[in-house]
Hints:
The protein is an alpha/beta fold.
Amino acid sequence: MHLLSRLGGLALAGVLGLVPPPASAQAAKRVDLELVLAVDISQSMDQDEHALQRNGYVEAFRHQDVINALTSGPNGRIAVTYMEWAGAFEPIVTIPWTIIDSAGAAHAFADRLENEPIFGEQRTSISTALIKATELIEGNSIASTRQVIDVSGDGANNAGPLVEPVRDEVIKRGIVINGLPIMLEKPKEFYDIDHLDRYYKHCVIGGPAAFIAPVFDLKQLAATIRKKLVLEIASLDIDNGAAPVQFAEAKEALPGIVPAQLKLPAEKTDCQIGEKVWGGGTGFDDFRGFPRPR
Length: 294
């Protein structure tokens, strides 16, 4: 079923006035952050690179800085779902929404993720990933003050709807989009673009305090994922360089983090460059907007 249609069904459920869960159940589902980890599994990265990317997230949820961050908020817990995506097909929800409120829960999440199989698919549809991530956030029964989509990938949108209008609509719904553009030094393919970090900054991320964390070497990947998660979970003010001392790696992360609010370069990024590389965008879906929020 098309993602937008499914979102429409969720909106309809709200209109029909489904009975809310008891107050005690609602309290049990209140967290400090709802975080969608949207991870690129396109075949522009080989199996070893996919494994390193996956292991970066596994290691992050076992690291004390991340555990400190996720238990530091007013509710002492966050909700996380791990989703893998590539072209304009239904993304794979590798791990559904999971409440993490302790070191044990974080390690259990990491253990489960480590044991999941890794798939690879063709093409790159960041827009489809954002649509699905929004569906996951708006369709769950979890309450929070912050919702974040964490998109990692190594290429520009070249399938599905254009990314810019989708990004803009997601931001209007109060969801922050952060990015982890992966720019490895290897032979360039026809679909690769220059300055992927600029593309992510101009065309993908957005919302209050949104940022990108570029990766230029796979050896940096695990540490960058860990530092990025600390900043997202703890909601640190990266513009002012604020980092509580209990998050030892956060200050080290700041030089490699690029806030969306920084002054953009003079040259404008073409947010349709990925589609143009694949032949002018013919055959791509038209994004007609999300249903009205519930």
